[in-house]
Design a protein that fits this description.
205 residues, mainly alpha, flat, two-stranded antiparallel sheet, 5 helices
């Protein structure tokens, strides 16, 4: 082994490797000790906020809205039913409203609450806002509650709308193919029930 090679080996062993170990250790400790951030798929703008900085009731409300928001984005955004929201889909006013609520209004409301908390500390959860009968925490929950109720209405409307489409399709098929009515209680076609009853009557005679 030449002197130059020996110096290079020593540099790697006693210089590069210890420095790399210290750096990786620092990164690992920092990652472990870093506060856990909010993680909502439908509202990625909230990802910079530590979970501990919000009350449990607020986080629960956000989680509910996130779940409903994901469903609504698909219902009103994926208009061509290809499994993804892209330029091929038609943009509706309802979809734009849903996106604005999740991308702008909710993050803004949460930011306003956190700003109040930074100014007043725990008082934001107990002290009434001037000229109102609610605290900062209650005001935020009211905003989230209003959005949550709106999302419930949209989901309910979508359910009934799609249900009506199924009824219309069924009526069309019955007329098109002259299909006998289906008895939902027995799970049989009405004509089959009538045939069975006729056979029973003949046997009794």
């Amino acid at each position: 082994m030449t002197q130059l090679t020996a110096m290079l080996v020593m540099f790697v062993l006693y210089g590069v490797l210890p420095a790399a170990g210290i750096y990786l250790g620092y990164r690992g400790i920092k990652k472990v000790t870093a506060p856990k951030m909010l993680e909502y798929k439908a509202m990625p703008q909230l990802g910079y906020i530590p979970e501990k900085s919000l009350p449990e009731a607020v986080k629960n409300s956000l989680a509910q809205i996130n779940g409903k928001g994901e469903k609504l984005r698909v219902i009103y955004g994926d208009t061509n039913n290809d499994g993804q929201i892209d330029d091929k889909d038609a943009v509706s006013e309802t979809y734009v409203m849903i996106q604005n609520l999740m991308d702008k209004h909710i993050p803004q409301a949460v930011a306003d609450y956190r700003r109040l908390y930074d100014l007043e500390g725990a008082r934001v959860d107990t002290t009434k806002i001037k000229n109102s009968d609610v605290t900062g925490k209650e005001a935020l929950l009211e905003v989230l509650g209003t959005i949550d109720a709106q999302f419930d209405d949209l989901l309910d409307a979508s359910y009934h709308q799609d249900g009506q489409k199924l009824l219309v399709t069924n009526r069309y098929l019955q007329q098109r193919f002259d299909t006998p009515a289906f008895n939902t209680q027995t799970g049989k076609l009405a004509d089959v029930d009538n045939s069975i009853n006729l056979i029973k009557d003949n046997r009794e005679e």
